[in-house]
Design a protein that fits this description.
Layout: H1 4-15, E1 18-24, E2 38-51, E3 55-60, E4 70-72, H2 79-93, E5 97-110, E6 115-127
Antiparallel strand pairs: 1-2, 2-3, 2-6, 3-4, 5-6
């Protein structure tokens, strides 16, 4: 019984969900979608554990990505949360357009259907703002 608290803590840590952001800005001069300049490629993942595939045990905290933080007994493994995290990253970078936006969901089941792990992955290439063209919005009236 003396070893119970560390074992319980280890089990809870393994069951904890997470929200992470992975990114890179190493484009080596490539262009994306014509002449647009990529700023960063971003991948957002939110995962969580469920009992009987539907009762949330723990899932990632989208308010604190890349932090050791989870939401207990709350399902945050939703596409909307990943899009919100991506949008916050876009604001941080001063970007308002993306390219190649993709999302997919993964479901894994353990111990028959007793435990399930679900995750959403969302990725996009953040694009630099288009340079202002001198020919746009020119008033031709005399």
């Amino acid at each position: 019984m003396k070893n119970s608290p560390p074992i319980i803590a280890a089990i809870l840590a393994l069951l904890c969900g997470c929200t992470t952001i992975n990114s890179t800005a190493a484009f080596n001069g490539m262009n994306v979608d014509g002449a647009r300049t990529p700023v960063e490629t971003v991948e957002v993942e939110t995962s969580g554990w469920f009992l009987f595939t539907c009762i949330p045990i723990a899932s990632g905290n989208p308010a604190r990505p890349n932090a050791v933080s989870c939401r207990w007994f709350t399902n945050t493994v939703k596409l909307k949360n990943n899009i919100d995290v991506l949008h916050a990253r876009m604001k941080e970078r001063g970007v308002d357009e993306v390219s190649n936006l993709t999302s997919h969901r993964e479901d894994e089941k353990y111990l028959v259907f007793l435990l399930a792990r679900r995750s959403y992955h969302t990725s996009a290439v953040l694009l630099a703002p288009e340079p202002a063209s001198s020919s746009k919005n020119v008033n031709t009236k005399k």
